[in-house]
Write a structure and sequence with these properties.
Layout (H helix, E strand, L loop, with lengths): L1 H19 L8 H6 L1 H10 L1 H17 L5 H47 L1 H24 L5 H8 L6 H11 L1 H12 L13 H28 L1
């Protein structure tokens, strides 16, 4: 109980500081556009330090479920280019998501599992059986907020490493899209311009395909037996 309360207090203090000091202004689209040239110059002069700071900042934003992950993904492309920007964002987002999931699990997961054991049994069974495909589908579909998936999965019993590698794999298409958009920052006016209805539909179908294929194979095997 003491560790849970301490962790909750630290997370609450970090989130409160973010909003109290208005740090969100530094991870806004307007700040990214206006500061793009300065950021690119900083990266050119200090490539490894800039990479380390960016990685740490992205992990912190994701782990604390703070607003700004989409902007930072765009910033990765604007600052580091497609290749290195994608690598930084891909690993930082997966690490941050896993930390957010573990924080949610430590703070509330055990209590929720005990309090609603019967209601969550079906969810836990489904995740144990199809968890990888289900999580992969959620990560591929951009309709579901990044931080919501992290927090909800923290209330389940999915293993942390499994959550990590599936999240990293499932977020590859969306990460590539946003990092590439960041390299073309001058041509977009808002993060919403990145995801067209056609692109959302394509990512949704791509994300649902593994789950649908698995269900189809299960039905075929059932008919055979």
């Amino acid at each position: 109980m003491g560790i849970r309360i301490t962790l909750l207090a630290l997370v609450a203090a970090a989130i409160a500081s973010f909003f109290y000091f208005d740090l969100g202004q530094h991870v806004s689209f307007s700040a990214l556009q206006s500061g793009r040239d300065a950021l690119q110059q900083w990266v050119a002069e200090n490539p490894w330090r800039a990479s380390l700071y960016f990685f740490a900042a992205y992990v912190a934003v994701a782990a604390l479920s703070l607003p700004g992950a989409a902007i930072m993904t765009l910033a990765g492309g604007a600052m580091f280019g497609l290749g290195w920007g994608f690598a930084l964002v891909s690993f930082a987002s997966a690490v941050g998501a896993t930390l957010a999931m573990l924080i949610a699990r430590k703070v509330a997961g055990e209590w929720v599992q005990e309090r609603y054991a019967s209601q969550l049994q079906a969810i836990n069974d489904g995740l144990e059986k199809d968890g990888g495909f289900y999580l992969f589908s959620l990560r591929m579909v951009p309709l579901f907020p990044f931080f919501v998936i992290n927090l909800v999965m923290g209330l389940t019993r999915i293993p942390a490493f499994k959550f990590y590698w599936i999240s990293q794999l499932g977020m590859v298409p969306g990460t590539l899209v946003f990092v590439f958009a960041g390299t073309q920052l001058a041509n977009i006016s808002s993060p919403g311009d990145v995801l067209s209805p056609g692109l959302i539909a394509a990512l949704t179908l791509l994300g649902l395909f593994p789950l649908i294929a698995r269900k189809g194979m299960q039905l075929i095997n059932k008919e055979r037996t």
